[in-house]
Amino acid sequence: MPSYTIDAERLWLSGRPIVFVGKIKDIASSSDGYYQCQIGDGDTRLTLLDCPNPSTDKIVEEIRGRKRGLLLKTDTVAVVATVEDVSVTYETVDGHEESVIRGRGRYRDMICLPVLSFEAVTEMGRQSFTNSWSKAMGIETETR
């Protein structure tokens, strides 16, 4: 993420779409059929204007509906947007004033990012090791 506002301006105000990864901080009604979404990552925020209700509702339901298992509950999304404005605001956190770089732009697309649980990664690693070892030893294994 950009360190200074000028870095964000150079990266985000290019006129080309950017990809921004962060967590959904807030969703508010914007106009008929649209939301305004606030996406954040650390000290960087992106406000998306005109997010279509059906696709945004789908993302929110996916986040709310995740259960434990292979996918952990997460509210991390990847957003494609064209940024129109960059500014800095100051917030007090634990008695310290911190700067927050804020962008405002037009929604292009958004997807919810999956996060694998430790158990899923461990199981995939075990299966991969078993398959690799078996092939190296010339042993046929049953694949699941």
Structural domain tally: 2
CATH superfamily of the largest domain: Nucleic acid-binding proteins
Helix/strand order: HEEEHEEH
Q: Report how far apart the termini are.
A: 40 Å
Mean pLDDT: 77
**Nearest-angstrom radius of gyration?**
20 Å
Percentage beta strand:
over 45%
Tell me about the biggest sheet? Answer: 5 strands, mixed, barrel
Which CATH top level class of the largest domain fits?
Answer: Mainly Beta
- Helix amount: 25-40%
CATH topology (fold) name of the largest domain: OB fold (Dihydrolipoamide Acetyltransferase, E2P)
| Quantity of strands, as a count | 5
Number of DSSP helical runs = 3
Overall shape: it is globular
Describe the structure.
It is a single chain. The longest helix has 20 residues, at 118-137. The chain contains 3 helices and 5 strands. The chain has helices at residues 5-12, 53-65, 118-137; strands at residues 18-31, 34-41, 44-52, 76-93, 96-112. β2 and β3 form a beta hairpin. It folds into 2 domains: 5-113, Beta Barrel (OB fold (Dihydrolipoamide Acetyltransferase, E2P)); 117-144. Strands 1-2-3-5-4 form a 5-stranded mixed beta barrel. The mean pLDDT is 77. It starts with a helix and ends in a 7-residue tail after the last helix. With 144 residues, the protein is of the alpha+beta class.
